[in-house]
Design a protein that fits this description.
Structural class: alpha/beta
Helix content: 25-40%
Oligomer: single chain
Strand order of the largest sheet: 3-4-7-8-9-10-12-13
Bound molecules: flavin mononucleotide
Strand content: 15-25%
Mean pLDDT: 96
Radius of gyration: 19 Å
Distance between the termini: 44 Å
Number of helices: 13
Largest sheet: 8 strands, parallel, barrel
Order of helices and strands: HHHEEEHEEEHEHEHEHEEHEHEHHH
Shape: globular
Amino acid sequence: MFNYETLKPWLFKLQPENAHALGALVLRSANYCPPLFNPMIGKYFISHPSLTQELFGRTFLNPVGMAAGFDKNGTMIEGTLAMGFGFTEIGTLTPKPQEGNPRPRLWRHIEEESIQNAMGFNNDGLFRISHRLKNIYPFSTPIGVNIGKNKTTSEENALKDYTTLIKALHPYADYMVINISSPNTPGLRDLQNETFISQLFAEAKALTDKPVFLKIAPDMSEDQAVALCVHAVASGADGIIATNTTVDYSLVSEPEEIGGLSGEVLRERSFYIFDAIARALYGKTTLISVGGISTPEEAYRRIRAGASLVQLYTSLIFKGPEVVEEINNGLIDLLSRDGYTSITEAIGADRV
Ligand SMILES: Cc1cc2nc3c(=O)[nH]c(=O)nc-3n(C[C@H](O)[C@H](O)[C@H](O)COP(=O)(O)O)c2cc1C
């Protein structure tokens, strides 16, 4: 049976992006031969009555999702289920295909169990990805679709990129995510302003009944982040995903000077911003927490702070799909320890 600890030393000998490509190749084979992956689903996919919840008309069998950026093109949706994730967020995808930034653009900080990436929205573009989604949707686990603007699209035309993507993709998504928080598209984070957000959500709400989330960066002051999210929800956002990667390079000993950091070094910053947002918005909208989650205790902390769902990416690289299994099994124990029969009773428990 597949064991990540045995595989990891070999994978870590490869350039990070080549290791990702190899993993992607294996996971894509799940599309062609699903029975091969049944043992993996049996081992890693944890479902339990206490972990199950209904959100926006879909059943989430467990609350641990694959964060955006792992499956930018929607080619590994079956494989993500096999790794145990209760839902997956594909993208970020853009209207036109784009190559992303020149390589190298992905680095490991092994001692710090962190990753630095400057990918720059490399993706196959709307046309190809929408065909893929059309063939697979609705899927057994919920699918989020994370969207962004093309690098060559000016700030003035950015709104059009987002509305084009929402219009074309909302039939094949359980929820959509507006990404204006990646550090790797020049000027993108400048769209994290109230004027743009008002226009965007006004148009988004006219285009779709599906939930539309805003994903935010961790590199704002607490006040700015809260004000922006409160404004987004008042403008029609159905939820907030906090956070994307950080550009605080002082967090690692040997940083590159581009890209964003994720993993262990992001954990406390991500929690701090999430917690501030939850203080203002818990009970008023749906919150998803992401950033440095690698243990059941950390996932539970986010849930008790107000997260209905959590996501991870970097801990999958360092610990393999065992991390998803470990978090879900750990959550079952933590919920039971605290006398909860359902995760819904624990969501926001620390807010009251
Ligand atoms: C290699 C890589 C690529 C990413 N690409 C995207 C992306 O395209 N869109 C996005 O919203 N977030 C992207 N992210 C950010 C993750 O979705 C997540 O917000 C962040 O990594 C923090 O979670 P983690 O510490 O569990 O990795 C990327 C992260 C990594 C490591």
